[in-house]
Each structure stands twice: as C-alpha cells, then as structure tokens.
Amino acid sequence: MTLGVEHRPGPAEGPGSRTGVPAPLPAPGPAIELRGISKAFGPVQANKDIDLTVARGSIHGIVGENGAGKSTLMSILYGFYRPDAGTIRIGGREIAITDSQTAIRAGIGMVFQHFKLVPNFTVLENVILGAEDGPWLRRSLSRARGELQRLAADYDLQVDPDRPVETLSVGHQQRVEILKALYRQAEILILDEPTGVLTPAEADHLFRILGGLRDQGKTIVLITHKLREIMDITDTVSVMRRGEIVATMPTRDTSPEKLAEAMVGRKVLLDSGKTPAAPGPAVLDLRGLRMVDKDGVERLRGIDLTLRAGEILGLAGVSGNGQSALLEILGGYPEPGARVEGSLTLNGRPLPLTRTDAGARRDAGVGHIPEDRQAEGLIMDFAAWENTAFGYHDRARYGRGWLMDTGAMRAEAAAWMEQFDVRPRDPDLASRNFSGGNQQKLVVAREIENDPAVLLIGQPTRGVDIGAIEFIHRRIIALRDAGRAILLVSVELDEIMQLSDRIAVMFDGRIMGERLPGQTDAGELGLLMAGCDPATTRPQDGIPPEAAAPDRPAGQPSDAGPASPSPSKGII
Amino acid sequence: MDVATVIQILDSAVRLMTPLLLACLAGLFSERSGIFDIGLEGKMLMAAFASAAAAAVTGNVWIGLAAGVAGSLALSLIHGAASITFRGNQLISGVAINFLASGLTVLLGQTWFGLGGRTPALEGAARFAEWKLPFADRIAPVPVIGPLYSDVLSGHTPLVYAALLAVPATWWLLYRTRFGLRLRAVGENPASVDTAGVSVTRLRWTAIAITGLLTGLAGAYLATGLSAGFVKEMSAGRGYIALAALIFANWRPWRALGATFLFGLMEAVANRFPNIDLGPFTVPSMFMNALPYILTVIILAGFIGRATPPRAGGEPYVKER
Prior knowledge:
Largest interface: A-B, 32 and 23 residues
Mean pLDDT of chain B: 91
Distance between the termini of chain B: 65 Å
Shape of chain B: globular
Number of helices of chain A: 18
Number of strands of chain A: 22
CATH architecture of the largest domain in chain A: 3-Layer(aba) Sandwich
Number of domains of chain A: 2
Largest sheet of chain A: 6 strands, mixed
CATH class of chain B: Mainly Alpha
Helix content of chain A: 25-40%
Strand order of the largest sheet of chain B: 1-2
Oligomer: heterodimer
CATH superfamily of the largest domain in chain A: P-loop containing nucleotide triphosphate hydrolases
Strand order of the largest sheet of chain A: 6-7-8-3-9-10
Mean pLDDT of chain A: 83
Number of helices of chain B: 13
Structural class of chain B: mainly alpha
C-alpha cells in the first residue's frame, strides 16, 4: 500500500509480529473494527468516516499531529463520546459503547496520557477502585493482592501494592494504570501518548511490557506522535490527518520519513539544515555553581559552563539530574529555600545568582523558554496577546506614559502569530485553547523575538507535534546564526545531537563531560548520562551491553531483559 | 476548682460538642466527596427551626426530628443542584443557603407563631428526654470512673449517643467499604472514578444527602436537646466552628471527635468562667470563644501538623478527554 492513497480496510492486515513469530490467535477475526465513525464538535469535524481494523494480538500504532483526531477516536472507543455515525465491533460483535462501564465490560482498557489515579491511595486501592467484588473492601483487597502478584510475574509489571501512588515514579504510576486495565480483564489496551512523561529507560521498559502483552494475545493500540516508537514496537500503523485515516500499513513496509510525510501532508525536513557554527567570544560564564535545596539535598555539585556567541550548547541527561534546577537558577528564580553559591557573568559583568528574578534576567538580556510551558511559560487563562507581552510588558514599546499600550501588544502578538504560524491566529484566544505545539510557539515567539543575548531553552519540543518541532528547531538555529548564545536542555537525545554545536552531559548535579556532536555517538553519551566516564569504564571489547543504548541510564533494573533496538537516527 | 466543677464542665462539654460533632461529620462527607459546604450553618439553623416548629405543633419530638432532617435535606438539595448538577460555585451556593436559612426561619416563625421569630417553648414529649445508661447508678460510687461514666457519659439525650456512634460508623464506612473508597477517591480525583465507570454525580449526591441528614440531626439537637425551642440565629456560628474542626481534624472521623470535644470544652469553660482571672490580667470570655478560630488559623498556617484537604474540593467535575 502506498501513501497518499485512500485507505481501503482489509482483513488481510494480520498481526505480522516483527520478530517473525506469529502471535497466538485465540479466536479468528479482528479485535476492533470501526466502520464509518464520524464525530463533530460544533463546526469542527474531529473524526470523519473512520474505518479501522485492529488485528487481535497485535500492536497497532496510530500516529498523527496534535489535533488530528486520535484522542477523539479513542475517547469514542472508551465511551466518553458517542459517535455521530458509524459502527463499532469488538471481537466481531457489534456494540454501542455508551459509557466507560460498557467499554470496560467489552474488554477495553485505557491508559490515559494524564493518569487517572488517586494520588494518596495505595496501588492496591487504585487497582480495585470501581472494580470491587462487593460492598466490603477486605475481600476485594486480598483478591487483588494475589492477582497483582500473578500479573507482575506474567508481564514484568512489578509494583509494591502498598505504596501510595504519589510516592511512585511516573513510570511506575503508568504500570499501575496498565495493571488497572489488566485487573479488569482487558483484552484490548489503548495507550495515549504513553512515553510523553517517561524517561527513555522507562519507555524501554514499557515497550518490553507491551511486547509481552502482545505475545500473550492481548491487542494493543498505541497512540503517539513519536515515529521512532512506531518503528520500534508496532506491527501495523495507521496515520491520521485532520480527522481522517489517510493510510494504514504494516510497519515493516514503511519508514519514518514516509510516516512524517503522511502525517503532515507534505515533505518534512527531518534534517534541520544546520550549517557549522561560527562561535564567537564567551557571553555567559558560570563558575562553581552549587545548590543545596531546602531539604538539605545537594542538587548541583559544582557546575562550570561557558556559552559562546553563535553557538548552541546542548545539555543532555536523564530528567531529574539537576537540569531543571540549573535552568531555574540561570533564569533568575532559584527554588525557594535553596542555598546557591558560585559566580555568573554576562559579557564580563557579574549577574546575581540569588535575590534576583526572571524580569531582571530578561532586562539583562537572558531570555528563557521554560521547561513547563503551562506552569511557567504561560498563564493559561490569559489571552495570547497578554502572554506574548509578559516578562517584557514594561518595555517602552508597550507603554504609553504610565499606561499599558494594549493596542501595541495586540498588534505585535498578531504579527508574531503570523510569523510563527500559530493557529488559530486569534490574539484574543485564551492560551489554554491552543494545542500544545501552538502554545509552545507562543512562548518561543516571545523569547526569540525579544532578541536576547543568551537564550535558555528547556525541553523545547516536549509534547509538540512534528510540524511544529521542525519549525521551532529552525527558529532556534536562526537565532544562533544571528550570533546569540543558546543553552538547550533536553531529555531527547536525538534533539540534542541534531541541534547542538557542543554537547555537555549532566548526571547527578555534575557535568560528566563535553563532546562535539561529530565526534561522539549515542553510546558514548548514554554512558555519560548513566554517570560512567567512558574513558575509564569502556572495556577493551566495546561498550557493556547494559549501557549500549542511550536510553538506559543508571537506575535501570538489571532484570530488564534484552535490549530493544534503539536507533539513533536523526528522527524525532 | 473541685472535682464536681470539673465533672460539670466535662458534662457540659459533651453537650456542646454534640452539634459540632454532627455538623463536622456532615461536612466530612461532603468535603471528602469534593463538595465544599460552607452552608452547614444554614442547614443547622433550618433544621433547628423545622424540628422546633414541628415538635411544638405535634408535641412529638420524633416528628420534630424528622422535620428537622427534612428541612436540612431540602437545603442540601439546593446545594447539590447548584454545585453538582449545574456546576456552580460551591462557596457562593453555601453562602446563599446561609442567608436563606437565616431569613426564612425568622420569617416563617413570625408568620406561624407570632413570637418574634421564636417558636413556643418545648416541654415534655416535645423535647428529647435524657437517657440514663445501664448501671449508671451502680458505677457512680467508683472513684474517677464512676462520675465520668454516670455524670459525664450518662444522662444525655439520644442524639448525643447518635453523634458518638456516628464517629466509628463514619470511620468504618470511609475505610472499610466500597462506598467509602469511592467517596474518598471522588474527592481526590473524580476523573479516576469516572474512568473506572462509576458515576461521579451519583456519588456526590449521596454524600450531600448524608450531609443533609447529619446537619439535620445537629440542628434538631440544638432546638430540642440543648435548648427548648428555636430562637433567632440559634446556631450561632456553630457551622463555621464545625468547618474549623474539620480542618483541625484533617478530614478524619476520629480526629473530628477530638477536635469537636476540644472546641466543646473551650465553650464549656467559657460559659462556666466568663472571665478567667490570672492575677496580673484577666482573660476575657471573648478570647475563649475566639480560640477555635485562632487554633484553626494556626493549623492552616502550618504551625501544628499540616492540613491536607481533599484535592478536588471546590471544583465542579467537568468530564474531559
């Protein structure tokens, strides 16, 4: 099947396991069959005449940009929305899914992007919630305890049943969600952007779990916009664009480039077209930065960094190794109660590390695209034009005497939205009504267009769709070419490799080492990210297997099983 | 201060604790389900009036009790409709209920009885009788335990014992039953309950109904147990003190008993010794009356322990993808 051709569903799309071992088929017929599903919200056609067949015992990927209608389709399957038209067959039987209870009874389990867990409940309580055996809890709890032990053994899903879920890592919380579905005897598991919140190591473990479930005959639908995940784990993939399924094909017959093109509807330059850097003099210089947080934990243990004009310094590392604290301190707002020492200079003039704020930093010429656009980058209930002016609202161009010139702010917001292709192009729309990619574009536009001497960037493309990623990357490079110094912090190693002119790796509050992108590879960076110095630990015969993939840092359980292939192509 | 005074104060503390405890548990059910209920005060007042009015007319305190519960449930219905079904602001709805009760009780009282908003004084079967617990007379001579049992614990109206029994009952319901698990979950993260295929709306309505029942008991006790008839504004801020006790108790039933007893004790001491003379200066009775609020502010400021309210409290649940 070729791309761009209208998809004709056929029962021939078999499980086609990547390993060549056919998955067991307990009964013939597909697990899910959707015919002509349509759903409109007012004038917006979220799903249009969707035909989809998911084979039993397979992993079926659904890719598409944000707003392509993936989540709406899955919400229809889980009974959150009633379709306007079309039929749903589960296991060959036509059913009307009117609410979540019907979906659960039909054997559908859903793992949402934002977990639906009760934070202060134990794992066990979360698992039985809504699936209790009777009015008294004792019996349900003891049965669930035994059942969880069995599931843990069968599917590599170990979680301590008596821990409150709020004390678990995000990866473990996700396991609880999967356990919830399996406890309800789900045969079909739908995962919505499951790796968006996971570290690479956690994502790897998740994929092993999903592989195991598939091999036991479960059907898995994986919604994602990360093409590498599709290539790594799925058997079949469907591409959605603007509410329609535009292609369905066996994964082995496609490539990331072809998928990207089908998603966006045009050729996507996965290569950002970067020319070699022409680094100028040092702009920002950080010496001996230490930070002890209010609980007395040393989070940064002596960091030296130099940012040079016209250069992107990529800071790689598994999330939680001090990158956030570093960005906050450089951005002028260290964590409350933290003790900070060290020295910071901008163009030779000292900048204070504490007792300052983000506004003073911006006045000094340090722009900041924060890691969490919703919590730090934007005020979600405020209009786009207010958000694009924030942080710079006291600039002369926004003022008229002591009054704020809202007309100027609006006009500038409108111009930037045009330039950055923010959709919809409505400066008066509240920020929360934009998709993630467009929200990020608002933040990026504000910080880049104010032309900072230094730009701090945290996770610029987290939860952003592929078209917007391409755009944001190009703007970052353009800013570098204009001679600005850029610090890029990202947990996506591919992004670091693709954009950086110099790569520093952070581990446990320290810089483990610096490399040049042309002279290193994912394996070496992965070792640094895991806290090993390759110069001393690399054995004669190559990289040890447990550190071979960049996605396998410290803290990875040793019983993790065989590594899944981890290509380090320049793909999202 | 002799033993008799201590026993008297403790006995009075149990009486004064009862409406606070019932209202506090009522608030616990509501807030644990994620519905803030600042209207406890108004519901108590309405229940007090309805029970006193019905008891005065019929001469039967049990009919009065039923009327009180009905009055309180009616206001719960308004709160539920506003905050659950129509997803309105829970604080505004609660404040409205307080105003409504405050005005309606006086208006109806004046219209029906013409006593300036009061109900006729209740006598005999129109009031709750005091129950003597078994063996109260025989245990009485035993030192310490005797007076505590026969004077402090025994000799109260049935609603006092109902309030005391409501504590373990609430604990058991909350932590040992399916309903309790779901109730606690819906106040923390309603989406988790919804995606598990359980109705958020129905759970919250159930919780609100239990709240109405318990505030009904609290109000009826005020008018037919603690006093003999309804007077204007007789709840006198007890609904707010109950909310303070709920925060003090960190939304847990046994701690609610402790908190409301402490507050009841403070009120009893303030009643017995209006001004405490400490030699160089005198502690005015107003200070004792204000103490529950002062303690609550200290708790909220995080000086003693930490208050962790239900996370979804105050937020109407809107289903999203």
